[in-house]
Amino acid sequence: MNTLGRIFRITIHGESHGPAIGVVIDGCPAGIPLDPADFEEDLARRRSGAEGTTPRREQDQPRLLSGVWQGRTTGAPLHVLFENRDTRSADYGNFTAIPRPGHADFTAMMKYGGWSDPRGSGHFSGRITAGIVAAGVVAKKVLQHSLLRAARLTADNGQVQGSSAVEHAEPDLASAPAPTGIRFQTSLLAVGGSKDINLAIQNALKDGDSVGGLVEIRIRGIPAGFGEPMFYGAESAIAHALFAVPGVRGVEFGDGFAAAAMRGSEHNDPFIDAQGHTSRNGAGGINGGITNGNEIIVRAAVKPASSIARSQHTWNFAEHRMTELQIPGRHDTCIVLRAAVVLEAATACALADLALLWLAAMPLEQNIPWRHP
Amino acid sequence: MNTLGRIFRITIHGESHGPAIGVVIDGCPAGIPLDPADFEEDLARRRSGAEGTTPRREQDQPRLLSGVWQGRTTGAPLHVLFENRDTRSADYGNFTAIPRPGHADFTAMMKYGGWSDPRGSGHFSGRITAGIVAAGVVAKKVLQHSLLRAARLTADNGQVQGSSAVEHAEPDLASAPAPTGIRFQTSLLAVGGSKDINLAIQNALKDGDSVGGLVEIRIRGIPAGFGEPMFYGAESAIAHALFAVPGVRGVEFGDGFAAAAMRGSEHNDPFIDAQGHTSRNGAGGINGGITNGNEIIVRAAVKPASSIARSQHTWNFAEHRMTELQIPGRHDTCIVLRAAVVLEAATACALADLALLWLAAMPLEQNIPWRHP
Amino acid sequence: MNTLGRIFRITIHGESHGPAIGVVIDGCPAGIPLDPADFEEDLARRRSGAEGTTPRREQDQPRLLSGVWQGRTTGAPLHVLFENRDTRSADYGNFTAIPRPGHADFTAMMKYGGWSDPRGSGHFSGRITAGIVAAGVVAKKVLQHSLLRAARLTADNGQVQGSSAVEHAEPDLASAPAPTGIRFQTSLLAVGGSKDINLAIQNALKDGDSVGGLVEIRIRGIPAGFGEPMFYGAESAIAHALFAVPGVRGVEFGDGFAAAAMRGSEHNDPFIDAQGHTSRNGAGGINGGITNGNEIIVRAAVKPASSIARSQHTWNFAEHRMTELQIPGRHDTCIVLRAAVVLEAATACALADLALLWLAAMPLEQNIPWRHP
Amino acid sequence: MNTLGRIFRITIHGESHGPAIGVVIDGCPAGIPLDPADFEEDLARRRSGAEGTTPRREQDQPRLLSGVWQGRTTGAPLHVLFENRDTRSADYGNFTAIPRPGHADFTAMMKYGGWSDPRGSGHFSGRITAGIVAAGVVAKKVLQHSLLRAARLTADNGQVQGSSAVEHAEPDLASAPAPTGIRFQTSLLAVGGSKDINLAIQNALKDGDSVGGLVEIRIRGIPAGFGEPMFYGAESAIAHALFAVPGVRGVEFGDGFAAAAMRGSEHNDPFIDAQGHTSRNGAGGINGGITNGNEIIVRAAVKPASSIARSQHTWNFAEHRMTELQIPGRHDTCIVLRAAVVLEAATACALADLALLWLAAMPLEQNIPWRHP
Questions:
Q1: Which ipTM did the prediction report?
Q2: Structure pTM?
Q3: Do D231 and C4 make contact, defined as CB atoms within 8 angstroms?
């Protein structure tokens, strides 16, 4: 199922060594300013080049084939296409007999009966994630758009739910990309267990190995009220999107796994002001699957890249024996460097969908005694 | 969005103190033996009673209102209804002015404009999860059914994909509930950070506090080939379902968060035999979003129950000041004891949906040279 | 797939002779006044009793088991349950060997391998449509709610799209059930090809036969802008819902099948005023899958009831020969009498879903030069 | 919502005068032979050229950008792209002030706030349907694939449901494109109400007018058992797809609207043999939303093209007065000539989705006494 979302929906297609990859972005409201240049910043963050990333160079020049006219979204589906240029299939054999450890070679072969495209991992290549990043750019604009629409409602019906978040986001307005104050802050907490990221990468590179890493995404300015319990809660929607990114092994919110070792009196997060701020935001901005207006905090564990220069011992299914495998080609020593923006984009896509659902089902009147329009 | 799944779909309804809760289970194949008694074992695991669980007693007597005739599923939607009996609304005030920390009182109020049912957390109550457990019972039967159908295919087209898993599940046949050897094993790894579960609970109970816990679910016998990349991969589907269970703060597969601190040479999981077993199953049985036939290993972190006997300091939204809150009613000291089976059921529901998608799109022929019918 | 819709979603369950039937209504905004009495009017229209309807009597007393508290929707799923009382399974044999012509006996048997519940057509019984009628009652309220929300927007951003329809609905305000002027008008155009409905029914009754009929549904007050091209256009959504009602053989909009015999110059429907009224509304209020603010006009052809008192010749699959079949039990001579309100309800459900999608994706600003806020 | 289907899912994108249009086809099983040449026949049927079709010439050269490798589907989404070449935007003004009667100019403007792409009807252009035709080609292959899989099952479990249809399709094997005997037969019953199609077109052409037409699609070889009651029945799924095709005003099955004027004794369709053939197939091959193994018969009424050479009187929204409108550009006098294959393709897409759902939920055993393996 290559589609994510219910209203804001993205559909991915393409293979690493096919002619092109792309994404169709549907359910995007009309009239949102969108320019091909808007994609540049995030795509650059995903692009290789830094130490520890593959030498493969793709310009990732997005072609906006539909859904935009005169610089605004039209309401029709957007299609962003990336032509593949720097492909060297010679690098890749057919990994049918000796599927690469940690890769999807074996599982794709089993699921698709040996018919899947093995060149550069085909549809399972990290290359495909360029489409997620492109969708994320649009998703962030949809989030801004949604909060502006909600703020407009506030004008005449006093308090729209969630507006408290809009309020306490106001201090951010200066630095924020838009007056609604939504701000994504994505950081790499550690690589290979070390906070010294460069050193960890250099060591792995030296050993012809790869390293995993821990990414944290914080989002400010999301109002209270995003998330559809019980099966489309904010954590479900975000985790669903994050686990779709190749290499993600774990996802946690707020205190995350630490919460399992805590007492209720520690983990509970009392409200401390009229805006609904909590004492320590251990819930990561989500209660009962619904955002509470505090900063959303989500972390994802990304495994080390499976393709390493070092030789590995694995099974040869054709010859029924263990064998030594040397993986040729160009590898990432630390995919986390490039995965961070993909995880941010996936989170944005999930939130954009929740934003539109939030706008769809907003109540007409408020029944909250202490709320005075 | 109270529906989960694409073919095997469950829809939850009800509130803690309403007349009844229930679940509609759609997309269940016809002809599967199903008896009201089949629900008893898992429902009993969720029921309160053990030390550390709420004194509230619900018989959880499931009424099977549709979808079953003469002891077999009919192909029509199943409806399982649980009447609520032991409700004491007197216990619960309206938490509008002083929303309980950690609960959905505040977020539900913001999202639904103050119209949501606050009695016993209403639709956000753990009570609702009885429906998930009931659906899980059916899901496990659908999984068995699906593997039997696949095995039948194997008879004439040699190797169906995934059959390798059916093979290496054979050692389990004796102990397994069905010849296909699917087996769920759910365990409580720790409570409040300690492996001494009873002690941790007693201490918390003594302090009028609550404790979180860590649950691990292992599933054997799932063939290679479950999971629809890229946005409905096995991790995405399972995590989506698990995060729908109240109190889950984190989900990880195989090495999980530890993978972020590993090297590729450590984390990579070479295949070691013709059945596709891997050396250490650090991937938790999933590569590229598709099951690889090894045991599926998933862990979920469950937070401590938010309702505790101890008083807490939190904001009074009506009086614009901090206040002391004492939560009346009957509480769970350790919801993990009861959540474990719910998490198992949610996982089963996700897998049952993937099983039917797997059957739907199976290729007609195999193109795997080393596979000989 | 027993679920209809994307945001406003209804899930049906139950069998004719099971203990109960029901419907889960999800995606309903919070704060909408809803009382069990609200269901009475439409349920009465579906109830048997009139000449030409089955003597079977069901009180169709709806039990509102969830989603409503203190007379308002809570945002949680509504569950409406109808207990089955007046069932006489003795009336029904097992139609396995001699499936009733026109019924689902044969197809259900083939699809479900003989496991489906044959009692009173089981899940295929018209009885199940009580749930659709109940959902329709809620859908109509969601439509009113949606237009009120849109009207509120109009207040500060001048013209919301679709507001022209709200305008020209104003003349209806007096007679309309709500200030937004949405009005459903469902009429039986003909029965058995005759406009003299009573006579046609009496004759059929006399002959122990049944008659089909033609139903027309007109909806006023739907603004321009409902419908999501291209695969969820207004016609697609409405026709999808109508064909789910047992016995519907055809659906047409506006000029319908007559359009196939027309010239463009005849069928084209020029706009004639600033409100977007068209000269003859031959499009039935829909252009390009999107409502244009004119009255929506849809017609459905309902076949004669398949169960008739007269004996029929059909195949005996057990004895491999033609045989004479006499269908016992209580039959409707003219199901159209009762189907009309079901068709109206199904249309309302489709429109309510489109209304919420319309609210979700509304643009922030207008780019229509001739529109002055 | 530009996506159709649940498992076999197609997503359309593009505008008439944008750089390209296309379709993403997801949920297609792996290993199905597919060559770019396979699209040629159906695309040619949609292409203009015949008298009565637009002089605009598009090569409709499909670029298969993903999902196929070495001539077989890979299980990954297919992307078919059509570059737009012969566009003359000069032909089209901005129809904001004077929306063309019968077109989506007005409704798109209202829905999207004036941001939609008006060039050549933008996303609402018949041009977009090239993607539906391409998807239909794949859908027909998926149907063949599905029946072959079901037939394989028959080998060891005696009778798979639906096999009776496979049986009585056998006489077709010679002429059929595949051994399963699925055959689409699409014909133009009438144009402008006349059976003399050429004459009707010539007359309309002479008058600078356009004509509508009636299309009938018959499908042989579909087994009993396709269709998911109650909200995804065969009629609902097919009608949903057909009404997505621009210009469709009505859809009927079997006796269709004529059934409304019939008696039960006339319309009822007794079974006449062990294969489940019925006496006159008045149900059009569908009972209770499920196919019965007889030929599927569906008709669609297509309106006359809205763009005509003759001038029309319509409203000028900018100048608030009626005005004369002359539509420049290249028009189809009779779009039905080209719509027929689009309707066939849309039907194939709906059936392919039902086929995969049918395979997904097939029962393991049969409980039909008169069926002997």
A1: 0.93
A2: 0.94
A3: yes
